[in-house]
Structure formats: C-alpha cells, structure tokens
Write a structure and sequence with these properties.
Chain lengths: 245, 81
C-alpha cells in the first residue's frame, strides 16, 4: 500500500509536468463546461431537466450568500466568483470518490520495488490545487475591497497611523492575510487527502461492506469543505468591502 | 542509523507521527464541542436568529477543525516523507 503525499507525475506537456490530480481536475472542468453548455442551450421560462437542477443549485448559493451579505446587488456582483469556487471544489471532491480513482494506474519502478502510480487522484488531494485556489481567493478579496472602497481607504485598514496600537493592529491584519492563504489551502488539502488515505486503509482491511459508511462520510466531508471554503471567502469579502469603524 | 540501544529511525517516526495527531486533536475536539453547545443553546434561546447563529457556528467549527488538520498533515509528513 503506497501513500504519496505529493501527487505523482504521469506525463509531460512540453516542460509542464502533468500530475494525476491535475488530470482529474481537467476531467471535472470539462464535465462542468459540458453541463453548463447543455443547461443553458435552450433557456425556458419554466425550467425542466438540467436547467432545473442548476437553477436549484444557483438558488441555494444565492440564498446562502444573501443571508450573509444582506444586500441583493452585492450578492449579484459577488455570486459568480463564489459559486465557481463552490461548484469547482465540490465536483472535484466528489469525482475523487468514483471507482477507478486511485486504483487504475501504471506500474513503475521506483527505488528498487515496483509500485502502482494511480492514473487518477482527487483534484484537491494535491497541495498545488488548493494553494492555487487559496491564492486566487485572497487576491480576489483584496481586489474587491479596493474596487469597493478605493485604494487609500482600503490601504488605511492595514496601515493605520492614528496611534501606536492601531498601527500594530494594522500590521497584524496584514500578516493574517498571508496566514489565511496557508489555512485555506491546508484545510482543504488535509481534509481531502486524509479522506483518501482513510478510504484506502479501510479498503485494505475490509474490502466489502465496511467501506460504505466511510464513503458516506467522504461525500459529506466533500460537501462541507466546499461550503466552508465558500463561506469563509464570503465572510472575508464582506469584511473587505465594509468600511472600517 | 542505529544507536547502541537499538532504536531505529522508523520507530521514532512512528511514535512521533502518532503523538502529533493524538495530542493535536485534543484541543480542536474540545473547541468544536464548546462551539456546538453554545450554538445550540443560543438557538434555543432565540430561534429567530437561527440563521445568523448557524452561519457563525459553522465558520467557527471550520476554523477549529483546521487546527486538527494541520496536526494531521504534519503527522503524515513525518510518517511518509
């Protein structure tokens, strides 16, 4: 049973190494693009079929975001970004539970013994993916804050010269922006990677019947982690666009 | 590398990984329990604010759980890298 913390490289495009979790991210992105095309191909006033399903998803996200922001125009402005984060993370997490992920692979010789390099691995079980999502989210929060308040007002939140204590608090806020990147990426990576290891260990010990409750747990964890990432990004956006008191 | 008493690197790695996650999960577990209990109590006292309380509670639980996840990632790094 081989467990690798880093996603294994399975190919190369030019000078860019392609890992197995990158491959599954591409598959889920392609799936989302195809579904998006078909659900908006013939928009009907009374939705049915795929359009109905996605309207349900958008309505759920709209209500969730609206409950926190309490302003419909702001919600409409920030919903596309937050909905993308949510749908991308949840589809990546759930596609990592399909049969074949982690089991279909190539036998490679590494350090003397032959190990199986899986062809697919959950998209968020790679620290690169979650780090990319975290960096994009935090940069977006800064950009949205600047666009809502203006550069000087937004910079005054971090560089506050009203007094020594306020200055210190401002610097602390700046450092906490960086720590948010770390916590975002590690929370998502740790949850999904640990879930993969858990499923592998349980399948190794008791391959039949016993993994079923753990698969339910992983479905739940995948949904919750997507929701938590989105809600945290939402709360940070709300904090960035409100004026400092 | 073996010392004279015969303790190998793998033994220390295993013990370190186990201790990291065991100790690192105590505080987040207590924290999540406290957040949950306070959240439930405040919803019971004021059912109208249930939406806001629920949002805050889920956020706080996610932050607390992240600490346990940090400990888990360190344990995995110790064991497998």
């Amino acid at each position: 049973m081989e467990i690798s913390l880093a996603a294994e490289k399975i190919g190369q495009i030019g000078a860019l190494p392609v890992t197995n979790s990158m491959l599954l991210s591409w598959v889920s992105s392609a799936l989302l693009i195809v579904l998006a095309y078909f659900s908006t191909a013939k928009l009907a006033q009374i939705p049915k079929g795929i359009q109905n399903f996605f309207e349900m998803v958008v309505e759920f996200l709209f209500n969730t975001v609206n409950d926190v922001l309490e302003d419909e125009d702001a919600t409409k402005k920030y919903l596309p970004f937050l909905a993308t984060i949510f749908i991308f993370i949840i589809v990546n997490n759930w596609m990592g539970l399909l049969p074949g992920v982690g089991t279909i692979g190539i036998y490679e010789l590494k350090e003397g013994h032959e190990i199986l390099v899986p062809l697919f691995r959950s998209g968020n079980a790679d620290l690169n993916t979650t780090l990319a999502l975290a960096i994009v989210t935090i940069i977006t929060v800064q950009v949205l804050g600047v666009s809502a308040l203006g550069t000087f007002k937004y910079a005054k939140k971090f560089f506050n010269f009203k007094g020594p204590i306020d200055f210190f608090v401002g610097i602390l806020e700046l450092m906490s922006e960086f720590s948010k990147i770390i916590s975002f990426s590690f929370r998502l990576f740790g949850n999904i990677f640990a879930g993969e290891i858990l499923l592998m260990v349980i399948a190794f010990l008791l391959p039949f019947i016993a993994p079923i409750p753990f698969f339910f747990l992983e479905i739940f964890v995948g949904f919750i982690q997507a929701l938590v990432f989105t809600m945290l990004a939402l709360v940070f956006i709300k904090g960035a666009i409100t004026e400092a008191h | 590398m073996e010392t004279t008493t015969g303790i190998s690197v793998e033994m220390v790695q295993a013990i370190a990984a186990a201790a990291t996650i065991a100790i690192g999960a105590i505080a987040p577990a207590i924290a999540i329990g406290m957040i949950g209990s306070k959240g439930v109590e405040s919803i019971g006292r004021n059912p109208e604010a249930a939406g806001k309380v629920q949002t805050l509670a889920i956020l706080a639980i996610a932050f607390a759980e992240a600490i346990a996840i940090y400990a888990l990632v360190i344990a995995l790094i110790i064991k497998f890298v």
